[in-house]
Amino acid sequence: MTVKRTLLTALRALRRNITRSALTVLGIVIGIAAVIAMMEIGKGSSGAIRKTIASMGANQILIMPGAAASGGVSFGGSSALTMTAEDCKAILADCPAIASAAPVVRARTQVVYQDRNWVPTFIYGSTADYLRVREWTRLTDGDMFTESDVRSGARNCLVGQTIVRELFRGGAAVGQEIRIQNVGFRIIGVLSPKGANTFGMDQDDIILAPWTTIKYRVSGQSASSGANSAASATASGAGSSSNSIYPGASPIFHPPSASQAADLPTQVRFANVDQIIASARSGGEIQAAIQQVTALLRERHRIGPGEADDFNLRDMTESASALASTTTMMTNLLLAVATISLLVGGVGIMNIMLVSVTERTREIGLRMAVGARSRDILRQFLVEATILCLIGGIFGLLLGRGGAMLVKEFRGWPIEPSVEAMIASVFVSAAVGMVFGFYPAWKASRLDPIEALRYE
Amino acid sequence: MALIELEDITRTYHLGEVDVHVLNGITLAIDAGELVALMGASGSGKSTLMNIVGCLDRPTSGKYRLDGDDIAGASSDKRARIRNRKIGFVFQNFNLLPRTSAIEQVMMPLSYTAANLSERDGRKRAEDLLKLVGLSDRMDHTPSQLSGGQQQRVAIARALINHPPVLFADEPTGNLDSRTSEEILAMFSDLNRKEGITIVLVTHAVEVGQHAQRIIRLKDGLLDGDSATEKHR
């Protein structure tokens, strides 16, 4: 009996009892539809959860300069001036496990807008990649600054929600100019709200600007002149600017003459950054990323074997393990639900096939009388059950996809089509047909043709 | 050489503790081209004998050769093949598949034929057979759209699809009225005379037996007479 004929015979037999075939299939349809819809919705929500956790920094790696020491006196963590923006570019280019990386320059100083002032928790100088690393690319208003802003040290900045509240009373911030330590910045964008981080620090209390601008116009001054920062800033502001901000205020020091200015050594522009923030491609690649970054930085900083690193790497182990366990739990839950619905569908198939065998005893007897071997009968019933389940699987797949889309359309739940689940559901439905169809088929094949023919 | 050769065939059923001896040693030969009636009262063992001769059942002891092949010890697969290629069955209750067209009923045994016939050739052969039994205008009708006599003709066409040398008919007219019975029996005579098919009619009705050339009578599992009918004497 050829494959084609077996299929034709099975299809004819199923068509003869179209209503019952359809009802039988319904069990599998619902089972597979439930699986597909659950998988899509589940994958969507677990993707959303993963994103949320990732935006908390689960995939992030913090690269800090090491401790500098002079004559046995350590200056504490991050005091070395060895990390550069070029290191950041090299990390992004040469470490395959790193998805994005951005240098960070920090400052902490007063910000002024009209008659209001505020000291933000974070004044960060970085590159356009910063928001990608932080998974914070959604802006409430305006745009992110660009690479050319970074190159030219443009005085553009983005502000967080807390800044908007404190300096602008919640009003429109984009286009306004604020002063950070007497340097005017134009606000070109407003970040979306992010809330507090795991340590309770307000992440929305942030101003983000090109790192070159922060480095050389804001923090560079304050860092180079230490405790006298305010005074020297006023002084190097060359009188005119400070006079325009604070009319009537007289300079503390006498303005330097032209010859004095020429005698002053040119300020050394340190190009070091305070830290580099990078994100791994996925939670599983964090370890690989750490190894790649370590090897690369050791090479770039010319650290010989046996010498200690001049930098430190930190990952967010806690958040990462929370992410992993959430995802695993989600998957297992879905798998359990899917298994149960398929089991119910399979038992339905077996039930109907058994009824079918009893009802078609005479037909089986006749087929045996005209020359069907018991294995032909076994195969026929097995193929019937498998075809039923496959058809059910395909309809279930479509129904499940449709259901998931409806849920997305009307409830706004995130969904994510799962190709693995689709392929698996087709195979699983065929397997259900074979497993649960086997007993009825075997029973049919064991019938005695004489008794089967006489069966009423 | 005879087409069917039985030698000392016995058949015993084991029903719990009791052994029921249904056939007690039957020796018999049927030549190719004969039209034989197998007659006997209910319980005489004629159905059991037909099942054995028709390769549906195996004798408890004895020898059986069909067309030169030893059947008594054949495996169930081999017997299935022989049923498919060498034997046609016609039943009292027609045994047609419900909700299936006449042409598909007739083609059904071809699914189990090892020598592959293309779908088109099989359909052609089935159409020819339906024409032969006079149903050329009923090919797409399902059993519920056919009369009893027409259903039995479909069954006859189905039995002939693999050109078997021998046809077994178990009370073929038992469910038909007398006029239709005559038509069906005339068709058997025609098939026997024109196509040379050996036909074994199993019946308890004397008037059916009269259509045969030879009547074999059974009583209590033993032969109780083997004679040519008046018609052919």
Q: What's the arrangement of secondary structure elements?
A:
The complex is a heterodimer of chains A (456) and B (233).
Chain A: H1 3-16, H2 18-55, E1 60-65, E2 69-70, E3 73-74, H3 85-94, E4 98-107, E5 111-113, E6 116-118, E7 122-126, H4 130-133, E8 139-142, H5 147-152, E9 156-159, H6 161-168, E10 177-180, E11 183-191, E12 206-210, H7 211-224, H8 229-236, H9 240-245, H10 258-263, E13 275-280, H11 286-300, E14 311-315, H12 317-359, H13 361-369, H14 374-411, H15 419-445, H16 449-454
Parallel strand pairs in A: 7-12, 9-11
Antiparallel strand pairs in A: 1-13, 1-14, 2-3, 4-7, 4-13, 5-6, 5-10, 8-11, 9-12, 10-11
Helix pairs in contact in A: 1-14, 2-12, 2-14, 2-15, 3-11, 7-8, 12-14, 12-15, 14-15
Chain B: E1 4-15, E2 18-30, E3 35-40, H1 46-53, E4 61-66, E5 69-70, H2 76-86, E6 87-90, H3 102-107, H4 119-132, H5 148-159, E7 166-170, H6 178-195, E8 198-203, H7 206-209, E9 214-219, E10 222-228
Parallel strand pairs in B: 3-8, 3-9, 6-7, 7-8
Antiparallel strand pairs in B: 1-2, 1-4, 4-5, 9-10
Describe the structure using short key phrases.
heterodimer; A: 456 residues; alpha+beta; twelve-stranded mixed β-sheet; two-stranded antiparallel ribbon; 16 helices; 14 strands; B: 233 residues; alpha/beta; six-stranded mixed β-sheet; 7 helices; 10 strands
Give the overall pLDDT of chain A as a whole number. Answer: 82
Order of helices and strands of chain A: HHEEEHEEEEHEHEHEEEHHHHEHEHHHHH
Helical fraction of chain B equals 25-40%
The major beta sheet of chain A can be summarized as: 12 strands, mixed
> How many strands appear in the DSSP assignment of chain B?
10
Q: Which regions of chain A contain 5 or more consecutive residues with pLDDT less than 50?
A: 221-243
